Structure to design on (432 residues):
């Protein structure tokens, strides 16, 4: 069609995913776009829609998003200038007196809407003090710099500002996994679990914040939830929108671990549709768990779409940590999609994978008693995961564009290392 481009052509022109183009068209954000059957025809001179995230503000400064992710009845205590500048924090700790937990310093970067490519600008715009310090620790963690993240989070482990304290404990747990400081990681994880036990007589907001960080700490390590953990429905609505979006990722990940792949994928799709895409960090993680779900459902095309969506959001700010954390669960999708076009980024992701997974196992295995595979290469692990999910050698070969014999060789080597003889036996050694 003259003077019109296809979705694929426009995706290449604007440097975004085809899924994003389809979303723009469906939302009526590209004037002159016409639908023909299942496809769209787009005027070749159409202007790329402005990303609404550039106008978004964090929940703490009054920002909002449409639909259920917008807080309706939560009244957050705003700090004075003096409070904001105290590194130790002076926000209400949620005591029985009835005060509300100040969410300002609870994972502030995660809870901020920013345009991809402007992550550091968003951090620099924050008030000096705990909020900015915690946000910078978040940035360094999610960009694969755990040493810096741990150093920046450590001063707030004993802060009287419970938002900053809970954030520091969560960041300190995961950062120390990657740098091999396992005793530090266990300490911070214990603090997260203890916060749930201590929340009994605190305000509902404190309970919600504690449940949020404790569930994130447990589920991502594939550990049992703390005994005192409330049902998600009892605390989700008390969280600001960005944190609520990440909490939905945690829920979706939990469903995945239980084998509820379709339910998990549906949760992700609904959460993204209701505004979570405004918050880059939660959006990245939501898209990644969707990849996990669709690969387990043997729908690689849908998995690929979500991976590219996550990559479109993450790459401008180098927010690659999540890709390394989830590598083993992504069904060799990184090898199939990221490695051919972005080999240097892929290598860095694999470096993150090795560092993170080593620490992950040293915490996960002793607590659960499960000996998750620890001596496989990333390629062997990826193929073994697909085999454990019921993929045939031919399906794996077609997915990775390699020969069936190469697949057989890698899976045989994986089974030899694990001392197993059947694919049924293989499952018990893979991530659950």
């Amino acid at each position: 069609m003259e003077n019109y481009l296809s979705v694929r052509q426009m995706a290449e022109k604007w440097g975004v995913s085809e899924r994003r183009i389809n979303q723009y068209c469906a939302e009526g954000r590209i004037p002159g776009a016409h639908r023909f059957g299942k496809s769209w025809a787009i005027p070749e001179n159409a202007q790329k829609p402005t990303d609404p995230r550039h106008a978004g503000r964090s929940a703490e400064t009054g920002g909002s998003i449409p639909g259920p992710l917008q807080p309706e009845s939560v009244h957050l205590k705003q700090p004075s200038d003096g409070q904001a500048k105290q590194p130790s924090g002076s926000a209400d700790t949620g005591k029985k007196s009835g005060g509300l937990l100040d969410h300002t310093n609870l994972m502030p970067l995660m809870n901020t809407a920013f345009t991809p490519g402007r992550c550091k600008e968003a951090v620099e715009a924050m008030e000096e003090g705990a909020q900015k310090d915690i946000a910078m620790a978040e940035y360094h963690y999610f960009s694969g710099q755990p040493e810096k993240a741990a150093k920046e989070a450590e001063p707030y482990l004993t802060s009287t500002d419970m938002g900053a304290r809970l954030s520091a404990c969560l960041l300190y747990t995961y950062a120390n996994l990657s740098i091999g400081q396992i005793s530090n990681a266990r300490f911070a994880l214990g603090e997260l679990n203890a916060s749930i036990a201590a929340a009994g007589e605190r305000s509902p907001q404190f309970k919600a914040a504690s449940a949020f960080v404790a569930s994130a700490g447990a589920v991502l390590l594939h550990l049992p939830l703390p005994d005192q953990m409330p049902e998600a429905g009892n605390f989700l609505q008390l969280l600001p929108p960005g944190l609520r979006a990440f909490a939905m990722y945690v829920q979706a990940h939990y469903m995945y671990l239980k084998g509820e792949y379709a339910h998990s994928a549906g949760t992700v799709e609904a959460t993204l549709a209701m505004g979570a895409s405004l918050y880059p960090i939660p959006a990245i993680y939501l898209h990644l768990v969707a990849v996990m779900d669709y690969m387990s459902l043997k729908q690689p095309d849908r998995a690929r779409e979500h991976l590219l969506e996550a990559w479109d959001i993450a790459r401008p700010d180098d927010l690659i940590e999540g890709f390394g954390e989830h590598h083993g669960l992504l069904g060799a999708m990184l090898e199939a999609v990221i490695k051919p076009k972005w080999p240097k980024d892929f290598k860095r992701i694999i470096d993150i994978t090795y560092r993170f997974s080593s620490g992950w196992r040293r915490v996960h295995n002793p607590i659960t008693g499960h000996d998750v595979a620890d001596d496989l290469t990333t390629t062997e692990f990826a193929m073994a995961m697909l085999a454990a999910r019921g993929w045939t050698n031919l399906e794996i070969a077609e997915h990775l564009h390699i020969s069936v014999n190469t697949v057989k060789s890698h899976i045989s080597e994986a089974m030899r290392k694990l001392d197993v003889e059947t694919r049924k036996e293989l499952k018990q050694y893979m991530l659950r």
The first helix runs from residue 7 to 14. The beta strands are 4-5, 34-36, 39-43.
